[in-house]
Amino acid sequence: MQLTIRHETRYIYTAPLAYTIQQLHMTPRKEPQQQVQSWHLNVPGHVHAYTDAFGNLSHMMTMDTQHRGLDIVASGIVETTAPLKGRVPNGDALSPLLFTAPTRLTEATPGILELAASCLPDGRAQSRDLMSLAEHIFGAVKYQSGATAVTTTASDALALGQGVCQDHAHLFLACCHAHGIPARYVSGYIDPEDSDHAASHAWVDAWVEDKDYHGWISIDVTHARLMTDAYCRLAIGRDYDGAAPIRGVRRGGGIESMEVTVDISTR
Question: By three-state DSSP, how is residue 97 classified?
Answer without folding.
Answer: helix
